[in-house]
Write a structure and sequence with these properties.
Order of helices and strands: HEEEEHEEEE
Structural class: alpha+beta
Strand content: 35-45%
Largest sheet: 8 strands, antiparallel
C-alpha cells in the first residue's frame, strides 16, 4: 500500500488519544500508515501513549512508553516543548542496541541489516511521493548512517515555522564513549517519526 503525506482538515483532527491502542501488524505498510495517520492528528501520536518513562522514582515530563510497537521491540513517544517556538512530537522505535565495542564487525553488520530492512519497507510503502536522503557522517560518532524521508512536495510546516524537523528518519550510530542520557557506548539504531505544532 502506497500513500502520500496528508494534511487533514482541522475538523477531522482530535486532541485526545484513542481509548485503546492502535491495532498494528508490526513492520508492515499498515504500521507505517497508522503511525503517519496518528502523527497527523492535532495531539500527535497521543494514541500511542502508554506508561510514563521513569527516571528512578520520578516520571519524566512528556515521555511515554508506547502501547504499540510499530517497529522493533521498544517504542516510545514524547513531546519536546518550545523548540524554536514550536512543540515537537515524536514516535520512535529502537531497531538495534548493543553496548560496548567487542565484535565490532559482526555488530555493525547486524545494525546495518536492521536499518536496511526498515529503510526498504519505508521506501516501498511511502512510494514516489516521498524522497530519501542519505548521510554517513557525524562528528559525534565513529560510525554513522542516516536515512531521511520527506515528501516531495516539501517539509510539513515549512510555510509556517522558522524551523522544521525531519518528518521520518532512520539512524544508526556507534561510539566507544558513553552517550550520557542518550544511552551507553556501543551500537544504537532507531526509526523516528516527527511532527511539529504551534506551542500550546
Amino acid at each position: 500500500m502506497k500513500f502520500a503525506y496528508l494534511a487533514l482538515p482541522a475538523f477531522l483532527l482530535t486532541a485526545c488519544g484513542n481509548s485503546t491502542p492502535p491495532q498494528i501488524t508490526q513492520n508492515t505498510c499498515e504500521a507505517v500508515e497508522v503511525v503517519i495517520t496518528e502523527g497527523s492528528k492535532k495531539n500527535a501520536f497521543s494514541a500511542f501513549r502508554g506508561e510514563p518513562v521513569m527516571l528512578g522514582d520520578r516520571e519524566l515530563n512528556h515521555r511515554w512508553h508506547a502501547n504499540t510497537n510499530a517497529f522493533g521491540d521498544d517504542c516510545r513517544t514524547s513531546i519536546i516543548r518550545d523548540m524554536f517556538g514550536t512543540d515537537l512530537y515524536t514516535y520512535h522505535c529502537e531497531l538495534y542496541a548493543r553496548t560496548g565495542s567487542l565484535e565490532a564487525e559482526a555488530r555493525e553488520a547486524e545494525a546495518r541489516a536492521a536499518i536496511g530492512e526498515v529503510r526498504d519497507l519505508l521506501s516501498s510503502c511511502l512510494g514516489q511521493d516521498w524522497v530519501m536522503k542519505e548521510t554517513s557522517e557525524h562528528t559525534d560518532f565513529e560510525i554513522y548512517q542516516k536515512y531521511l524521508f520527506e515528501p516531495k512536495s516539501g517539509r510539513p510546516g515549512a510555510d509556517e515555522f522558522e524551523f522544521t524537523a525531519d518528518p521520518i528518519y532512520i539512524e544508526m550510530s556507534y561510539t566507544p564513549f558513553s552517550r550520557g542520557r542518550s544511552g551507553p557506548s556501543g551500537w544504537l539504531a532507531k526509526v523516528q517519526f516527527q511532527e511539529m505544532r504551534k506551542m500550546n
